[in-house]
Each structure stands twice: as structure tokens, then as C-alpha cells.
């Protein structure tokens, strides 16, 4: 895997994020309370640019013992990113969807050394997914030879 420096720690707002493109792969890098996380910029729902969505504190419900909702407030410890295409929400620290824990963003390895932030770019195993973000969806070539052959045979028969 290719490891790339994406900037100095002080170049990242806290809370904040940067989207970097390396070797054709877009990576969302999040900085929250001094901690960095990174994810491939592809929503698992419909391949939207998830890391470019709104960053908001997670909404938490205060529920009484009798299951009555008392109030809502914003979490002081959790932030979500909301996919701009369809509103899917993911925890910035884990990449997990807020309600469906099996649905998650693809995590990218990230580390900080001597004030420099580095990411490990994943291999291009998922190129077909990355291509779909840019309108280059790869589909198998259509084989029209059978259809053309039968049309030719019909025209010769008349």
C-alpha cells in the first residue's frame, strides 16, 4: 500500500475535514478533538460522496423509564457525517451507520508522526466502485451478435 503525507496537523480544523484524491481514490479525512479518522469517500448505500456531507453532532433522545421521549439534545462526544445524496448518517469516529451497525464506511489507515498526517491508500481492488462516482461505470460489453444474426436471417428469408 502507498502511504502519502496529506499535510501538517495544524492545517486541519478541529472539528473539520479534508477530501483528498490520491491515485484516483477520494479519501475523507476527519479531525475531531485531536483525533484523525479517514474513510473512502463512497457511501455504501448508493456510492454517493459521503465524506462531503454535513458534519453534525449526533442527536440523542432522552427517554424515561416508561419509554416517553423527554427531549432531544446534541451529543458532546459523537459527530456524524450525513451523505448529501440520501441522508445516510455515519459516525465520524467509527464509520458505522447510526442505526444499522453492519453498514459502515470503508476505513482508511491514518497516522500522525512528527506533526505530519499520513494515509495509506488502498489498492485499486474496488476500481469499479470508484469509477461509478465519476460517471464511468464499467459494464460488461453487450453481445448483439445473436440479435443481429437473427435479423439478417429474417431479411434474407423475405
Helix content: 10-25%
The main pleated sheet reads as:
3 strands, antiparallel
Based on DSSP secondary structure assignment, what is the total number of beta strands? 9
- The overall pLDDT average reads 79
Walk me through this protein's architecture.
The chain is mainly β and 158 residues long. Helix content is 13%, strand content 41%. It has two helices and nine strands; from the N terminus they run βββββββββαα. The protein has helices spanning 127-133, 145-157, and strands at residues 2-8, 16-22, 25-32, 35-40, 54-63, 69-82, 89-91, 110-113, 116-121. It has a three-stranded antiparallel sheet with strand order 1-9-8, with no helix packed on it. Strands 2-3-4 form a three-stranded antiparallel sheet, with no helix packed on it. Strands 5-6-7 form a three-stranded antiparallel sheet, with no helix packed on it. Strand 2 and strand 3 form a beta hairpin. It is globular.
Question: Topology, please?
Answer:
Layout: E1 2-8, E2 16-22, E3 25-32, E4 35-40, E5 54-63, E6 69-82, E7 89-91, E8 110-113, E9 116-121, H1 127-133, H2 145-157
Antiparallel strand pairs: 1-9, 2-3, 3-4, 5-6, 6-7, 8-9
